[in-house]
Each structure stands twice: as C-alpha cells, then as structure tokens.
Design brief:
With about 150 residues, the protein is α+β, with helices and mostly antiparallel strands. It is built from two helices and eight strands, in the order H-H-E-E-E-E-E-E-E-E. The termini are far apart.
Amino acid sequence: MNKSILNFLQTVDISRFCVAILVFLLLTACGGSGSDDGADSGGRLTIHISYPTANANPGGFVTQTTVTGYLEDEGDGVVSSDDVSLIEVNGHAAVLSQDDPSRWSVQVPMNLPRDTLVASVESRSGLRSIASQIVNNQPMLIGILPDL
C-alpha cells in the first residue's frame, strides 16, 4: 500500500471519517451536494388551475374550453421552462406562456353535465403534482315569472 495512504489512515479518527463518508454518500444519493451553486435542481413544482374556476357553469352549450393555470416552484421560487418536463389536463398537453413560464394553457373538450379537470405537471427531476376541480356544464334554467 502507498506510504502516504498508510500515514493518512494512521492519523485519521476512523469514526469521524466513516461518518463523513456516510454523509457524503447520503447527500449524493438524495441529489444534494451540501452547497448551493445557484442552479435550480428541478425540484417540486405545484400546479394550480385558474380558469375555469371550481364549480363554474359554462351553460351546457360549450363543447370545449381553454383551461389556464400557473405553477409554483417550491425550491428556488422561480419557474423556468427548463424546470418543466410535461403539463397535461385530462390527457391534453398544455403549453407554457412565453412571457411567463409559470403560466400555462390548454384547450380541452367538455362533457355534459359535469366534468372533472385533472391537471398534472412533471418536473424535469420526475416529481409530479396534480390539481383537480369540477366544472358543471349544464343548461341553465331561465325562469319566467308571471306578472302579478
């Protein structure tokens, strides 16, 4: 064995050395490095649906609608297009806004009398977030009151 390695092993507190190696291995396995180099690690994104609002009713005459929403980055707080791998609503791919990559939109068909919108985002690190809400799509009753 190399003499310098033997000298190192004789002077090292072996228990501290083992703890340091374990910490290093855990950080490496969990994707952390123990330092912040300023780059986003592609952490968890949270998806939200902005429109249509929950329990909205477009009146039953709508066959499709534009669903819009926004993303939040729980890591560095800044959403970039590089953070996002995929956004879908009911299986239809959404597109990110070029002006604000935290905003997205997609056209989806509407079902009668009620539809559940399920939006999902997958970050480039493979983490998923899901949001859902119900939209009613029923004809509205228009009552005619007799003159009293």
